């Protein structure tokens, strides 16, 4: 305020009541230093307050509390939570240092931090909050997480805004290019996966793993009003197979094939006669209901017609049980059932949450009725344990079965044509024999008549001599 002055003498200092000191050196520079002892404000009035640096090295040219706020004047970078920022703006957790090579950097936002296994909250990310949205529908986020093997994927989630540890994965994008909708984690066995369904217009409430007593159990529930996973307004083109419960169209132009020759109809008929058609219901009744299917069993079909079977990795409902208890023990999650589960350490299993989200985890230890898992991002009160992943899940090529049936039908048609021709031939022969038999009978009658006439014209006293 002009009441305090410092001499131009080198090394002279003047102290203020807020703990700061003003000093002057021989080069004519004024220095400000010390430790604040009370709140202090800097009044700029209508003037700019500039901080300039001519540094050619280093990374902390202006800082607030070390890594809380850091300016690298050499790289033109600003860091929040890091003393070594990269990019234009680097947000980091707990002073994590970015490992991104500077050769990849262009001006941009970089968020650095530890990642979590599975589809959890932690991991570098961005949160979006809509203040006018419904309660528990205000927040969505995008964050980087990882698989148990260390592969990264982006998680897009709807998360709670009331302090509870719940989230709902919208979709995930793996660093391998795979996209998963409605499931936490970057699945490795397909490029695009859609998990879960959305009720179609007019659809009845479907049974769920947590509500198995639902009345939707008849086959009528599985018409076009079924809950849908994918709805397309146009056609879907595939360069390979499309697995479907309804019909499909398959490219069959001769110009894309090396034709080896016609099939053996007789052999195909023999094969078809060995296939056993079976009535069954699905174990997963929450998904399929209790309707009866009349189809083939893959293992039986494989024994007589192996070319119609394909094997792949998938999950089977070999446990299919609701958890009795879920506890955190020594950093792991233990799930207890009311029955023996038959799982082993290292098994990959599928769990279902109460929001119908599928979660894929790995078993780390087992007892008869409980097991621990890794890969759970957040623990819920209950899980439905679907079952384990098997490497030899069998899939039936019903197109191959249909063509086998066509070939066998062609053989039956040939046999029927031959049988009809033979019947016609035999019928003609029978008619010819009947005509011949009639002629023989007529001849016999004429012979009898002739013999009678001869007897009648013989003189009295003659006799017929036997020879």
Automatic annotation (TrEMBL):
Organism this protein belongs to: Spirosoma oryzae
InterPro entries named among the record's database cross-references: S74_ICA
Record's protein name: Peptidase S74 domain-containing protein
Keywords assigned by UniProt, alphabetized: Coiled coil
Superkingdom in the source lineage: Bacteria
Domain Peptidase S74: 252-423
Coiled coil in keyword set: yes
Ranges in a coiled coil: 409-453
């Amino acid at each position: 305020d002009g009441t305090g002055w410092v001499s131009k003498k080198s090394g002279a200092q003047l102290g203020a009541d807020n703990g700061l000191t003003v000093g002057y050196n021989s080069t004519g520079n004024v220095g400000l230093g010390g430790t604040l002892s009370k709140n202090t404000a800097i009044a700029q009035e209508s003037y700019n307050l500039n901080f300039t640096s001519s540094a050619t090295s280093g990374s902390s040219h202006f800082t607030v509390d070390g890594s809380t706020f850091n300016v690298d004047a050499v790289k033109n970078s600003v860091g929040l939570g890091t003393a070594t920022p990269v990019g234009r703006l680097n947000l980091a957790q707990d002073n994590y240092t970015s490992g991104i090579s500077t050769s990849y950097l262009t001006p941009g936002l970089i968020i650095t931090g530890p990642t979590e296994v599975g589809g959890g909250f932690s991991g570098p990310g961005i949160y979006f909050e809509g203040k006018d949205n419904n309660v528990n529908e205000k927040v969505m986020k995008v964050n980087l997480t990882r698989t148990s093997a260390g592969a990264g994927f982006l998680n897009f989630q709807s998360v709670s805004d009331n302090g509870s540890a719940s989230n709902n994965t919208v979709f995930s994008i793996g660093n391998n290019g795979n996209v998963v909708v409605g499931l936490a984690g970057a699945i490795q066995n397909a490029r695009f996966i859609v998990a879960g369904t959305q009720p179609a217009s007019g659809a009845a409430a479907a049974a769920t793993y947590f509500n198995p007593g639902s009345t939707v159990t008849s086959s009528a529930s599985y018409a076009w009003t079924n809950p849908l996973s994918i709805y397309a307004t146009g056609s879907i083109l595939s360069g390979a197979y499309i697995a479907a419960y309804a019909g499909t169209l398959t490219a069959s132009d001769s110009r894309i094939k090396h034709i080896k020759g016609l099939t053996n109809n007789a052999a195909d008929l023999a094969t078809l006669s060995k296939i056993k058609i079976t009535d069954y219901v699905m174990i997963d009744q929450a998904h399929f209901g209790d309707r009866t299917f009349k189809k083939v069993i893959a293992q039986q079909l494989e024994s007589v017609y192996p070319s119609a079977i394909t094997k792949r990795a998938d999950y089977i409902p070999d446990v299919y049980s609701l958890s009795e208890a879920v506890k955190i023990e020594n950093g792991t999650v233990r799930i207890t059932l009311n029955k023996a589960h038959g799982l082993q350490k290292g098994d990959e299993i599928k769990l279902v949450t109460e929001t119908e989200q599928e979660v894929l985890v790995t078993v780390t230890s087992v007892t008869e009725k409980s097991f621990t898992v890794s890969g759970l991002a957040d623990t819920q009160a209950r899980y439905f344990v679907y079952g384990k992943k098997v490497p030899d899940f069998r899939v039936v090529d019903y197109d191959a079965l249909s063509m086998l049936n066509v070939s066998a039908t062609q053989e039956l048609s040939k046999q029927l044509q031959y049988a009809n021709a033979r019947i016609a031939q035999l019928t003609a022969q029978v008619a010819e024999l009947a005509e011949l038999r009639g002629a023989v009978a007529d001849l016999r009658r004429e012979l009898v008549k002739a013999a009678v006439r001869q007897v009648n014209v013989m003189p009295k006293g003659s006799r017929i001599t036997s020879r």
